[in-house]
Amino acid sequence: MAATTKTVILDQPSHWEPWLFVIKTIANGGDTWKYLDPDLNTEPIVPTRPEMPKPKDVNPVKTTLLELDAAEKETFKLLITMYKEDLAIAKQVLDTIQTVRNHIVTTVSTKNIVYINDKTTVYQMLIALKKRLAPTDYARKLDLATKYNKLKTFSKQEDVEKWLKDWEITYTDGKKLNIPEVADNRSLFDFTHAISSIDSGFASTQEYFINQKTRNSEPLPELYNLIEDFRNYYRRTEALKSSASHSGFATLNGESQKDQKDQKDEKDERRCLCGGKHGNWTKCHYISPAQRPTGWKGKLETFEKINKILNS
User: Fold this and answer.
1) Distances (CA, A) of 39 to 33, 34, 126, 130, 267
2) Residue 193 C-alpha from the chain's centroid
3) Helices (H), the chain
4) Which range marks the domain in which residue 118 is found?
5) What whole-number distance in Å separates Cα of residue 132 and Cα of residue 201?
6) Number of domains in the chain
7) Within this chain, do residues 217 and 303 fall inside the same structural domain, yes or no?
8) Exposed, middle or buried, 124 (CB in 10 Å: 0-12/13-18/19+)?
9) Is residue 226 part of a domain?
10) What is the SS3 assignment for 92-118?
């Protein structure tokens, strides 16, 4: 089956940025964005198709090629070569602009067509749409701040993969607009706190290492890397859960109670990531902060071991 892409329809202000990105991408493919950019204060002059040179362009008194002498014919050939190059450039620009125009009229929602139906150039269309649909930086900052603060709390009704992607998108947009919510390193701590409701062990281990690096003035990881590490870890743990579920079904239907008990005893004695035998990671002092007794201090090498396993 052929792959399909979802077309971005310009219907409301929140669609402006992704819609304009597609427009700019199409225009850049034909080196025409410099003629269409709605951020320009003056409409650029778009190249037109050049006129084919005539013999009189070489010698005003001669009207046919046969009248030109040898030197004039060489000059005429040079003019023809230059004409073909200029024509190719103009054709590329004009064809790309027409492609952009077609994309605009087919991706602007019906209610917004009214803003462009009297415009004669693509630049004028984009100026009109920008004026009415492009959100101001202030409005975008408020919207991003709201989205970011919502992401700081994970709801179990949410899809984890989509939630992680929203983190990446919102963080990227926030950095572009310099909103305070993504300034400094606070996003690292906001993210580790947010994922603690999904996997407290991974979250506490990552937060420990971030604190250690901060204390030692060491370079901190990029939020993108932290998100990707958790995404890969989450996928592995979900795959293991699915595998364990299938294994449990087979045991219940094909093994004796003694075999099941032996396996349960073996499970209870399995080694934790820290090297101890807990049977359940939630009982580990290293992975679950809530299990730590007052005054407990773990070993740095054990924390490093756990982190290495989680990131592998």
Assistant:
1) 11, 10, 9, 9, 64
2) 23
3) 16-29, 33-36, 70-107, 122-133, 137-151, 160-177, 186-195, 200-215, 223-254, 257-268, 300-310
4) 13-133
5) 48
6) 2
7) yes
8) middle
9) yes
10) HHHHHHHHHHHHHHHHECHHHHHHCCC
191 and 268 together in one domain: yes
Distance CA 29, CA 45 (A): 19
Answer yes or no: is 220 within a domain: yes
Half-sphere CA count of 144, side-chain side, radius 13 A: 23
Residue 149 lies in a domain: no
Residues 6+ apart with CB under 8 A from 154: 160, 163, 194, 195, 197, 198
Q: Which two tokens stand for residue 174?
A: 């926030």
DSSP type of residue 278: -
DSSP 37: -
**Is the domain of 128 the same as that of 195?**
no
Residue 277 vs residues 226, 268, 269, 271: alpha-carbon distances, Å? 28, 8, 5, 4
Give the chain's radius of gyration (CA, Å): 32
Between the CA of residue 304 and those of 212, 243, 273, 286, 298, what are the distances in Å? 11, 27, 11, 11, 11
302 found inside a domain: yes
Same domain flag for 208 and 291: yes
pTM attached to this predicted model: 0.59
Q: List per-residue pLDDT tens for the chain, 312 residues long.
A: 344 457 899 999 989 999 999 999 999 999 999 999 999 999 999 999 999 999 999 999 999 999 999 999 999 999 999 999 999 999 999 999 999 999 999 999 999 999 999 999 999 999 999 999 998 888 888 989 999 999 999 998 899 999 999 999 999 999 988 999 898 889 999 999 999 999 988 898 899 899 988 889 899 999 999 999 999 999 988 887 766 555 544 444 445 454 555 554 444 455 677 777 765 666 777 776 667 777 677 777 777 777 777 666
